[in-house]
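Predict fold of EGFL6 protein; 197 aa.
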Amino acid sequence: AICGHGCKYGECTGPNKCKCFPGFAGKTCNQDLNECGLKPRPCEHRCMNTHGSYKCYCLNGYMLMPDGTCASSRTCAMVNCQYGCEEVKGEVQCLCPSVGLQLGPNGRTCIDIDECSTGKAVCSYNRRCVNTFGSYYCKCQLGYELKYISTHYDCVDVNECVTNTHRCNLHAECLNTEGSFKCKCKKGYRGSGFDCA
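Predicted 3D structure, encoded as tokens:
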């Protein structure tokens, strides 16, 4: 089976036919499926869509059960958690709906973990980290663009000289480099390449 456009989060099952992994959709399985919008809803109270999955959490005064339902809890109501709570060995603990969030100093509200600055994010060498609330994603480095090549997506060099996105002087020639470009003044001109006289 050959899928010309590839299957980003899935596998090729027939000519240009992708079978998406759970949590993904689209012709090339490149779109995150918003499970929170499905009928019936997967969570009883509140639902948070995540990349390829989702998280359930409960309204204040309710406790999240292992099956995703919410049970009324007097102890939870007293703690006043932002995203509901769970009882561990008789102790009430507030919950955060994502591993990219952590309990704040008050032990009730959730604050974002910046995976990019803490070094928890894993991006390949030619990609840079972009922090989001509760998570992060990897974006191509400046001077590179995401392209589908043979069997997978990769960051490839943008040829600024061909795309005409360089800032070379009218009297300079553009030279493409990996991830960038250089400008060199033409014969009979002198300067940086951005300015030629």
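The helical segments are 74-79, 115-118, 160-163.
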